[in-house]
Amino acid sequence: MRDYLKTGTAVFFALLAFLVSAYGVDDKLAQNYPSVAPYTFLIPLAMLAVTGLMVLSLVVHLIISVFERLQRIWGTSLRNTTVSKCAFSDLPVIHRLATEKVGDVSDLAQTQALYNHNKDCFRKIVDVKTQAVIGYFCVVPLTNKGVTQVQERNLLSGTVDLDNFAKRFAKGSSVYIGSIAGANTKGAAAAVEQLKLFLMNKDCLKAFARPMTKHGVRLVKNYGFAPVSTHDRVETGVFVYKIRQI
C-alpha cells in the first residue's frame, strides 16, 4: 500500500510540475508580482526536485523489499537442509564433490585415512526433501606439530601426515578448515552456516584456512580472516581466524 501511495504522490508532483510549466504559472506570477519575478523559475524546479526525491525513495524501498523477500526465501531454503556426521560410505560422494568444486584435493585413500584418524572432522549437508548430499565441510584439530606445519606452509605438501592432526577436538584447540563446498547455492550457504556453528560448538580458539577457490577467497575476506604472515596474499597465503572474537 505504501508503494502505491509513494508512486501516486510522485506522479502527482510530476504532473503538477508539468502543468505549472505548461500553463505558464510562473510567468503569470512574474507579471502580477514583479518583485518575485527573479524567483519564479524555482517553482518548477522545486516540483521536479520533490518528484525526484519521491521516485528515489520509492526505488530504494522497492530494492529493500526485494532483498528482504529474497532473505525470507533463502532462510526457508536453509531450513530445508540438515547437517550430520559423515559415515565411511559417504566419503566417495564427498570426495567427488570436493574434486568438482575445489579441484586440488587429497585422493580418496588419504581422505579415508584422515576419517579413520578422526571420524568427527567430516560433516555433510543433506537436502531434507531429496536426502541428497548437497554440501560438506572438513575441519580437523591440529597438534602442536600441525600448527607449526600450517604456519610454515608445509601442512599440505605431499601426502597427509596424520601426526599433524589430533584424534579428537579439545577446548581451546586450533583447527584447520580442510575444505568446504556445496553442490549448489543452497548447499554452499548451508555449509558455511553449519561450519560457523560447528567451530563455536567445539569451542576452538583459532581456525586456519588456505583459500583455494574464488568462493574461499570471498569467505576469508567476508569473515575477517587475517594473514599469518604480512607477506601473504589471499590467493596463496594461510589465514587465521580468532574464533573467540565472534
Describe it.
By secondary structure, the protein is of the alpha+beta class. It has eight helices and seven strands, in the order H-H-H-E-H-H-E-E-H-E-H-E-H-E-E. It has a seven-stranded mixed β-sheet with strand order 1-2-3-4-5-7-6. Strand 4, helix 7 and strand 5 form a beta-alpha-beta unit.
Features:
246 residues, alpha+beta, seven-stranded mixed beta sheet, 16% strand, elongated
Q: What's a quick, concise take on this entry?
A:
This protein is 50% helix and 16% strand.
Low-confidence stretches: none
In the sheet with the most strands, the strands line up as 1-2-3-4-5-7-6
Give the SSE string. Answer: HHHEHHEEHEHEHEE
The total of beta strands comes to 7
Distance between the termini: 40 Å
Strand content: 15-25%
Overall pLDDT score: 77
Largest sheet: 7 strands, mixed
Structural class: alpha+beta
What does the radius of gyration come to? Answer: 29 Å
What's the helix and strand layout?
Elements: H1 2-22, H2 25-32, H3 42-79, E1 81-85, H4 91-101, H5 108-117, E2 122-127, E3 133-141, H6 144-151, E4 174-182, H7 185-201, E5 206-209, H8 214-222, E6 226-227, E7 239-242
Parallel strand pairs: 4-5
Antiparallel strand pairs: 1-2, 2-3, 3-4, 5-7, 6-7
Helix pairs in contact: 1-3
